[in-house]
Write a structure and sequence with these properties.
four-stranded antiparallel sheet, binds adenosine-5'-triphosphate
């Protein structure tokens, strides 16, 4: 079966004055998948989404959506919904106005989904949208994005200001609606650990360039974490592709950029080391492109990983 391509970019580049926000991005987004768009602040995630949805024009390169150039083609643009983290609404807009406008614009609009989510998120109906809290604004964006049922839907950090309960509602509703109505969803996020269960593929951007674009399971399988006593760990990782390494006192952890073999597992066990899977968040950070944890955080992580080994070895 051939994979359907929803979005294809070639050499996509966006410069702002002397700064390059996106550089030579060539990729294909598979149709009917949920893809995470990851990368540190300023990596180019919003710029990428703006270009694909024709809200901005590239300095060089091309975008194709379902094989066609989206810019100034209303029939393609109306197939896409871009939920921005800083979406603005007219000053006098209340909830009903935003919903009514979306219902007119999006051909696949589903009012029952909108009504259910408005209730679940407890979005106020009386006040104007410009007085909404940050979390209420995010919730409104999520309602419009999911109820649009757009064949291609972009969410740019959709969780800003949402409390943990509301984020849980979003994740559950997204999965439920996607299962019932498969479509192409692209989410930019810094909450990788929290959202990794949603993601089938990831695109990782670093300073405007794509550094990874693959299935989450393949990315996860490409590395492992090893923890234990520093001396044993040093000799275990010698000659291996070490992506990151931390130590505190006599304990250390390392992320090794190789798929672990049965021999690796027995060698680690014999040396009193513990091998474990790397979380997507840690893996992205280990490749040098995730949010940088503070030195204390990472040292604590090293100590936690290592002390688990100590306990299991005891
Ligand atoms: N309109 C603009 N004018 C000038 N520079 C811009 C403009 N829009 C984006 N940039 C720059 O382009 C780069 C990429 O920005 P972008 O917003 O795409 O990053 P991002 O990955 O979405 O970041 P974040 O995670 O912080 O939202 C940044 O350096 C940003 O300052």
């Amino acid at each position: 079966m051939t994979t359907q391509i929803a979005i294809e970019t070639r050499g996509l580049t966006r410069r702002f004055g002397g700064a390059t926000a996106l550089e030579d991005v060539t990729l294909q987004v598979h149709a009917n998948t949920i893809t995470g768009l990851l990368g540190r602040n300023g990596a180019g995630k919003t710029t990428f989404m703006s270009l694909v949805t024709a809200q901005d024009q590239p300095s060089a390169g091309t975008v194709r959506v379902d094989g066609r150039e989206p810019f100034e083609h209303a029939d393609i643009i109306e197939q896409m919904c871009f939920v921005r983290d800083n979406q603005r609404y007219p000053d006098d807009y209340k909830l009903k106005h935003a919903v009514r406008a979306a219902a007119i614009f999006y051909p696949n609009w589903d009012q029952a989904t909108a009504d259910r989510l408005i209730e679940a998120f407890r979005i106020p109906s009386k006040s104007v949208v410009k007085k909404f809290s940050r979390g209420q604004l995010s919730a409104l964006g999520i309602v419009l994005g999911l109820a649009s049922r757009s064949p291609i839907t972009f969410f740019d950090e959709p969780y800003l200001g949402l409390d943990a309960t509301a984020r849980g509602i979003f994740y559950d509703e997204l999965l439920r609606d996607y299962a019932e109505h498969p479509r192409t969803i692209i989410l930019s996020t810094h909450l990788i650990d929290e959202m990794d269960r949603l993601l089938e593929r990831v695109i990782v951007l670093e300073q405007g360039r794509v550094v990874h674009h693959e299935e989450v399971d393949a990315l996860r399988g490409s590395a492992f974490q090893v923890a234990g006593r520093s001396a044993a760990l040093e000799s275990f990782v010698k000659g291996r592709k070490v992506l990151s390494q931390r130590s505190i006192g006599g304990l250390a952890t390392a992320v090794v950029g190789e798929a672990p073999t049965a021999e690796d597992r027995s060698a680690a066990e014999a040396a009193g080391l513990e091998i474990s899977a790397v979380s997507l968040q840690d893996l992205v950070a280990a490749y040098g492109v995730g949010d940088t944890a503070t030195e204390n955080d990472t040292t604590e992580t090293a100590a936690r990983g290592a002390s688990r080994t100590e306990r299991s070895a005891a």
